[in-house]
Amino acid sequence: MPGPNTEILTSNKSPMTLSGDTLVIIIKKGDALKGDLLTKINTLAKGGLTVLKSNGSLTGDLGELIWLPVQNSHYKRVALAGAGECKPSDYTEIRAREFFGNLSRKLRSANAGEVVMTIDPIISALKSASLGSQAAAEGLILGQYRFDTHHTRKADRPKFTLGNITIAVGTKTPASQLANGASKGSIIAEAVNTSRDLANTPANLMTPTIVAERAREIAEQAGIEIEIIERSDAERLGMGSYLSVANGSHQPPKFIVMTYKNGGPRKPITLVGKGITFDTGGTSLKPPGGMESMKYDMSGAATVISAIGAIARLKLKTHVVAIAPCTENMPGGGATKPGDVVYAMDGQSIEVINTDAEGRLVLADGIAYAKKVKNAGVILDVATLTGAMSVSLGDYRIGVFCNQDSLFRQLDSVAQSTGELIWRMPIDDYYSKQIKSEVADLANTGGRLAGSITAAKFIEAFVGDNPWAHFDIAGLMSAKSDSGIHIKGSSGVPTKSLIEYVAAKSAS
Ligand code: BES
Ligand code: MN
Ligand code: ZN
User: Fold this and answer.
1) Does 165 share its domain with 201?
2) Which residues are within 5 Å of ligand 2 (an ion), measured at CB?
């Protein structure tokens, strides 16, 4: 797997008893620069700290990174990193992650090597040492993510790679809290990066077969049960809606089912992810402009597969099923034609008005299978479902459609700490009339108006009474530039929230 090799370690010993290439001391705005560590550093720097402070070069402003010449140190170099205002009243894990994300890339381009980093101001600003070290681990791992597998020329790859980073504190903090936070954050961030890898990989190298192989590797490493439902099995199960999308492709479809049970409720929390490894639109072919971004159309599958991997690595006491119906959507000779009628696994008939509205077709059978075979409880589905979603909410908030107020409140509270912000969208029954069909139970499109809502109403028809939330991530599937924890390309959203939601629901 590409991505950073950095491991996040922790220590509650004084950095002066540790060693490495670079010592990074995080300071806040207007920091008094007192305490044992800074006094010692000032001595090693022959009063350099005092000079920097008095001439106004060291302010602690957010983003400041000042290298301090020192002698006789355990480190080749010492840097002071400004974290800005760190008032507990308005400081958040989101800000901490963003800070560490940016810092990780600055340290990498400065070739900082093996790093020891004190994070006291962040820990004081957040509610606990474990939240502080978790946010640090997440920011440092997510911020260094890169997808450069296919650059064969050295000049096209970033020059340096960071070594391990040891998070240390100057003040007395229980070592176990620091370590637990860093380990949880590392597992979560690695899952997000796995999700990014899966989605960033071009569609010829991430076919449904390859997604299934990757899912199998993740399952084997984490001790998760996995079943791959092949085309013939899907036919037997009556997944006519899902299979109608696969008809136009030479690539065999793979319907991935992963089950993790470690106590938890009888009815599993079920995560269903849209797994279109490439969306040409099918017979209702998309225009060529920007079509290459449709390699991201399996982002939903990528998030549920990597989330359940992390849930198992965290050994959460819970019962979770991840389902990823994977296929290409191609316009081959066998492709579904507009007007065709297909039957989903639960017996509902669907008139396929537009073969480009394929996401809901694969989700229909994903959800029907979750209910019928896996006895699903709460269902969360994640999909790059509608272009209309980016028109309404842009690339900042994920549109979430939910049939239970308490479930939405829980998801919203999780989102406010993961930073994968959501916004509740309406699912009034009024909208259902748009997806009525003349010839079948449902039509797969509902016209121009309220495109994201009619898509959600279509999915709801397969959910029935289960508590359910649908994440339409079309607007956020990829980032346009590097900033904070976001790296150009696949966002890996909302992997963090799926994991944290399940963690919050797990027995401790
Ligand atoms: N995968 C697309 C949605 C999409 C478009 C995601 C752009 C991200 C960026 C989905 O399968 C699709 O094509 N939806 C259609 C639905 C329409 C035909 C009702 C759309 O949004 O145009
Ligand atoms: Mn489509
Ligand atoms: Zn699609």
Assistant:
1) no
2) 279, 356, 358
CB 492 within 8 A of CB 110: no
Is residue 176, in this structure, part of any structural domain at all? Answer: no
Give the number of domains in the chain. Answer: 2
Cα(442) to centroid of ligand 1, in Å? 18
Cβ neighbours around 252 below 10 Å, total: 16
Q: Which residue, chain included where needed, has tokens 């004190």?
A: 118
Contact (CB, 8 A) for 297 and 359:
yes
How many whole angstroms from 207 Cα to the centroid of ligand 3?
A: 15
Contact 363, 472 (CB under 8 A): no
Structure confidence by residue, pLDDT tens digits, 83-140: 999 999 999 999 999 999 999 999 999 999 999 999 999 999 998 999 999 999 999 9
pLDDT at 386: 98
Which residues have CB under 6 Å of ligand 1?
279, 297, 354, 356-359, 384-388, 445, 451, 474, 477
| Angle in degrees, CA 94, 98, 102, rounded to 5 | 175
CB atoms within 10 A of CB 18: 15
Cα–Cα–Cα angle for 201, 204, 206, rounded to 5 degrees:
45
Q: What spacing in Å lies between the alpha carbon of 180 and ligand 2's midpoint?
A: 42
- The enclosing domain of 106 has a CATH number of 3.40.220.10
- For residues 244 and 444, what is the distance between their CA atoms, to the nearest angstrom? 12
Containing structural domain, residue 127 = 8-171
| DSSP states along 78-131 | EEEEE-----TTT--HHHHHHHHHHHHHHHHHTT--SEEEE-HHHHHHSS-HHH
> Does 268 sit behind a cis peptide bond, omega within 30 degrees of 0 on the bond before it?
no
Q: Locate 61 and state its tokens.
A: 């402003």
243: tokens are 């299979």
Q: Please give the Cα distance from 321 to 380 (Å, whole number).
A: 10
Query: Mind listing the pLDDT tens digit for each residue in 51-84?
Result: 999 999 999 999 999 999 898 789 999 999 999 9
Alpha-carbon span 284 to 316, nearest angstrom: 43
List the catalytic residues: 286, 360
Mutation probe of ligand 1 site: the residue of 274, 277, 356, 480 with most atoms within 8 A of C-beta? 356
CA 476 – ligand 1 centroid, Å: 13
CA-wise closest residue to 370 among 503, 468, 265: 468
Tell me: do 210 and 158 sit in the same domain: no
Residue 4 pLDDT grade (very low, low, confident, very high; cuts 50, 70, 90): low
| Atom number of ligand 1 nearest to Cα 386 | 21
